[in-house]
Design goal:
Elements lengths: L2 H7 L12 H18 L7 H12 L5 H8 L6 E6 L7 E6 L7 H50 L5 H14 L4 E2 L2 H8 L11 E5 L12 E2 L7 E5 H9 L14 E4 L5 H10 L3 E2 L5 H47 L4 H10 L1 H4 L2 H17 L4 H8 L8 H28 L5 H36 L4 H5 L9 H25 L13 H13 L8 H15 L8 H11 L2 H16 L6 H4 L3 H29 L2 H25 L3 H26 L22 H22 L10 H31 L11 E3 L1 H7 L1
Antiparallel strand pairs: 1-2, 3-5, 4-6, 7-8, 7-9
């Protein structure tokens, strides 16, 4: 693979603007090449010259290579100097030592190269500074964690005498015996994250730490690895022995930060109006703190890895592009420039590499019980590999589904079910049973298409949705699941039509095939065994549960994204109600018309239609009070108006009258216009007046602007297609419940299109803020400043 393609493939999607513009630099080099070819055409070498060159290269007597290597630095045509800049940072500027003919393109090349290098170097320096600030916070968090562990596991432990004797043992370089591993942890628990590595010695540290084990441990220099400890810090502690305090006193200055991530914590937070709680010193509290700090360390480690890879890829890019420059221009410039690159912060900084080792050691010691293999599995999860059998089975299932669909259509035409009244009545009874699966399969197919295009355009959907690395489904796997479900449903439908195609034989055991199918689907969904993508299934179940419990859970993007999907599956939810009515309340021979005669059915027909919108409304209310964002108030109002429109529309369907028809037209028109504006302007970020791209946004991922205008037009049309469904326009070529099913499918298609542009806008927001990692709230809040003020 060429370096340019590899460089583009290995970029962190959210940091793409911070990388060197390798493609732009190559374009300038191509212009230089064309200029040289047009002004200095190469003279063809004779056969004698070629033979002599061959002998010179391989004779072993040619000293040109060695002479060139010793005098290469003297033949450089550029000089790189530092220029003053704000914030006392070094910026670099390249100057040509000579003015060769036609060097304008070469000057512009180095100007752009300087700009790109200063951009990369500044970004890297800022990110490393940010990491170092996070290290300070993590140090304090780990201090509190270790103290809390001691307090919970060994309440009678007195840390101060043990620390004093241990410090003396370290200073004298003698082995020490500790009566509890918890005491050892107080001293060495987080020294590995300190970045002040000057004047460091080695301290013997136990390789295993179990806070629940109270057995004595013995340490010797020969049997344990060594960790760097700041000798100056220990010496200062020894000299100021009288000023030492008990490390457990840190617990008097911290409180637990309540993130309101559960219904109980949310209710307590509303009643107490406090986001911080005093420590209770319970094991449950300790587990929660350890779990949250574990997630913080995983995200912090991933950030360090990305920074290290960012440095490596950009350094390689500068080296590659300078070699191309020398090859095209035959000028010596790489050594001078690369010497500057090596001496810069980007090329010489070792903080990230050092922190990586220390975070690994800390995580393994404190969060994986000193099991390095298990710890590294968590810190460095393996990427998923595409399996050939997934592609094969997807093709096989799709072929079977197409064949079964053709068979269903031919059987329907052969039995002439549409032309007969009894056939139309029969279809009205079974279409709601199978349309439920049609909505799900269509939604899954569109989701698979979305994943394909998200990956193609480098939209980091896995990070946006918060999938655990290595567990996210690819488009092939979603396509496999959707085609497998479609094959089962079409096979059941074909069998259903073949056995019960006439009204007089209606009512056999074949009517329970759809019910058995839905039981199989639910069994697979809630299967506790590690089969059929268990992690993804449980992720979906958790999101659904959080939607149902809104606003008692903190709202995340997967939660409201899923709730938006449910608003487009109202007909599928109503199909579940029809299942209950069809198999419990009425005889199979009566069907849908009999269900509508039950008042309970009609009441739930209202309720089920508005449930998804209530989910979103309560989520907007939660975000309004948490984030103090006024946009959530307008968003909540939008869903409340949609609820009113759905209620009025449902009442009109059940009891048609002129008054209800007028109300339907007004409510549906207002709701449709409001939702359309929100889709295009807020969710997609389009129709910007002051934008480089007219009526679009400044940053676009798709290369063709016409795709955005087409999507906007289609969104308006499909929104008003839903309005036509509200008004119940008659289509003479279609009969029965098929019309409502078709319009429901159009709404699912609109949602699938909305998904792509919604995530594109979210990704571009992350890119603009260089947000490539999840922010996990810290478990402890310090109150040192408050204590000082009180004193």
């Amino acid at each position: 693979m060429k370096f340019g393609k590899e460089f583009k493939r290995e970029m962190v999607p959210e940091w793409i603007e911070a990388y060197v513009d390798y493609t732009g630099l190559k374009q300038i080099l191509q212009e230089i090449r064309r200029f040289k070819e047009s002004n200095q055409p190469p003279t063809p070498a004779t056969s004698l010259d070629r033979r002599l060159a061959l002998y010179r290269n391989f004779s072993g007597l040619n000293l040109q290579g060695s002479v060139q290597s010793t005098s290469d630095i003297e033949n450089q045509v550029i000089a790189v100097n530092t220029v003053p800049h704000e914030n006392y940072r070094k910026f670099y500027k390249t100057k040509f030592l000579a003015s060769p003919e036609g060097a304008e393109n070469e000057i512009s090349f180095f100007d752009k190269l300087d700009h790109e290098f200063n951009k990369v170097n500044t970004f890297y320096k800022d990110k490393v500074d940010e990491v170092m600030r996070e290290v300070t916070l993590l140090n304090k968090q780990m201090d509190a964690l270790i103290a809390l562990r001691i307090k919970v596991m060994d309440p009678g432990f007195n840390a101060f005498p043990s620390l004093q004797s241990l410090s003396l043992d370290i200073n004298n370089s003698t082995p020490s015996r500790i009566t509890s591993p918890l005491r050892m942890t107080v001293v060495v628990h987080f020294q590995i994250l300190h970045c002040q590595c000057a004047d460091t010695d080695d301290i013997p540290v136990s390789p295993s730490f179990d806070p629940t084990d109270g057995r004595q441990v013995s340490m010797t220099n020969a049997s344990y690895p060594k960790l760097p400890i700041n000798r100056n810090s220990l010496r200062e502690n020894r000299d100021t022995d009288s000023q030492k305090t008990d490390p457990l006193e840190i617990l008097d200055h911290v409180k637990i930060v309540n993130t309101f991530e559960s219904p109980i914590s949310t209710i307590r937070g509303v009643l107490s109006e406090s986001k911080e709680n005093d420590l209770s010193y319970k094991k449950e509290e300790l587990k929660k703190v350890e779990h949250r700090l574990k997630l913080i360390f995983i995200e912090f480690y991933q950030k360090l890895r990305h920074l290290k890879h960012f440095s490596y890829m950009n350094l390689s890019a500068f080296s590659k592009i300078l070699k191309k420059y020398e090859k095209i221009t035959s000028r010596k410039a790489a050594r001078s420039y690369l010497k500057m690159v090596d001496n810069s912060y980007l090329g010489s900084s070792e903080e990230v590499t050092s922190l990586l080792d220390r975070v690994e050691t800390t995580f393994i010691k404190h969060f994986s019980q000193s099991n390095r293999r298990e710890g590294m599995k968590i810190l460095r999860p393996k990427h998923k590999r595409e399996k050939h059998r997934i592609t094969f089975m997807s093709g096989f299932f799709s072929g079977c589904s197409i064949a079964l669909l053709v068979a269903v259509i031919l059987l329907r035409d052969d039995r002439k079910l549409i032309d007969k009244d009894e056939g139309t009545s029969y279809l009205d009874k079974i279409v709601p049973l199978y349309s439920f699966y049609a909505y799900i399969v269509l939604h899954m197919l569109l989701y698979a298409a979305n994943i394909y295009f998200w990956r193609h355009y480098k939209i980091n959907y896995a990070f946006i949705f918060g999938f655990k690395q290595g567990t996210e489904l690819s488009y092939r796997e979603v396509f496999l699941l959707s085609n497998g479900l479609a094959m089962l449903v079409l096979a059941a439908l074909l069998m259903h039509l073949h056995m019960n195609s006439r009204a007089e034989v209606y009512g056999t055991h074949i009517e329970y095939v759809p019910l058995g199918l839905i039981m199989v689907l639910l069994s697979i969904t809630f299967c506790p065994f590690n089969i059929i993508y268990r992690s993804s299934r449980w992720f979906l179940i958790r999101c659904v549960f959080r939607c149902i419990c809104a606003p008692l859970y903190k709202v995340t993007l997967p939660d409201f994204f899923l709730a938006d999907q449910l608003t487009s599956q109202v007909e599928a939810i109503r199909s579940l109600e029809y299942y209950i009515c069809y198999y419990t309340w009425i005889k199979p021979s009566h069907g849908h018309n009999m269900c509508q005669r039950h008042n309970v059915y009609n009441i739930f027909y209202f309720i089920l239609a508005i449930i998804p919108y209530w989910f979103r409304f309560f989520q907007c209310v939660r975000r309004l009070f948490e984030e103090k964002d006024q946009a959530q108030a307008y968003n909540g109002l939008r869903y409340f108006l949609t609820i009113l429109a759905v209620v009025i529309k449902t009442a009109y369907v059940l009891r048609k009258s002129l008054t209800w028809e007028v109300l339907v037209i007004l409510s549906s028109l207002i709701t449709t216009l409001f939702n359309t504006y929100w889709d295009i302007v807020v969710d997609w970020g389009l129709l910007r007046r002051k934008s480089k791209n007219k009526f679009l946004r400044d940053k676009l991922i798709l290369h063709h602007k016409s795709a955005y205008f087409t999507a906007m037009v289609l969104d308006v049309l499909l929104r008003f297609a839903w309005l036509q469904l509200v008004l119940r326009f008659n289509v003479h070529s279609l009969r029965g419940s098929t019309v409502s099913s078709i319009f429901a499918c159009l709404e699912v298609i609109r949602r699938g299109m909305w998904n792509f542009f919604r995530l594109e806008n979210e990704h571009l927001n992350n890119v603009g803020k260089y947000r490539a990692f999840k922010s996990v709230p810290l478990p402890f809040a310090y109150h040192e400043e408050d204590d000082h003020k009180e004193e």
